[in-house]
From TrEMBL:
Domain of life where this protein originates: Bacteria
HTH marR-type domain mapped to chain residues: 30-163
Residue stretches spanning the membrane: none
Molecular function (Gene Ontology), one example: DNA-binding transcription factor activity
Organism: Microbacterium esteraromaticum
InterPro entries hit by this protein: HTH_MarR-typ, MarR/SlyA-like, Tscrpt_reg_MarR-type_CS, WH-like_DNA-bd_sf, WH_DNA-bd_sf
Name the record gives this protein: Transcriptional regulator, MarR family
PROSITE patterns membership: HTH_MARR_1, HTH_MARR_2
Length: 178
């Protein structure tokens, strides 16, 4: 996916020029926003995938492991994992099944709800997620490709977009612990 050599022009700027040339002026800025964010996501995901490859996990699997590791007991209801990761239940169930198969997570019945399941991080899962987190921190998160001021501005802009789309409400000053 990543280019070995930079392109001579920015294809997204050219796409915007074409939108304007075709008279789609009301949509040109929005098209540029959407395609820019999607391309940035591709670039960042390629870096994340490369950092996680030695551990044999995808980012989706890492997220489940990291969420469980952040919880007080290493155990969460499957429904809480779905809600906190903002992913469809089918995707989380599929991801959890792979983690169970690999011995990184246990899937157990919920103690109070016979229809629900609990996910519990195993010792192997905890060891893997700690190593994978160290790799992501060193190879991706500590140097995302923009300076800290730009990073803060970008996070703020994207947070407003997400909030306006109904992704979340303003949090309480101190969020409840996991």
């Amino acid at each position: 996916m990543a280019q070995l050599r930079p392109l001579p022009i920015d294809p997204l700027a050219e796409a915007k020029r074409q939108w304007l040339a075709h008279g789609w002026t009301d949509a040109a800025d929005g098209m540029a926003v959407v395609t820019s964010v999607m391309r940035a996501q591709q670039l960042l995901l390629a870096r994340v995938d490369a950092a996680l490859k030695p551990f044999g996990v995808t980012f989706a699997r890492f997220e489940v492991l990291r969420l469980l590791a952040f919880s007080r007991s290493g155990t969460l209801p499957l429904s809480s994992v779905v809600a906190r990761l903002q992913v469809h239940a089918t995707s989380v169930t599929s991801t959890a099944e792979r983690l169970v198969r690999d011995g990184l997570v246990l899937r157990e019945p919920h103690p109070h709800d016979g229809r629900a399941a609990m996910l519990t991080l195993t010792d192997a899962g905890r060891a893997l997620v700690e190593k994978a987190t160290a790799a992501l921190n060193a190879e991706v998160f500590s140097a995302p490709g923009i300076n800290s001021d730009d990073a803060a501005a970008l996070v703020g802009i994207v947070a407003r977009l997400r909030k306006d789309a109904g992704d979340f409400a303003d949090p309480r000053p101190t969020p409840d612990p996991l």
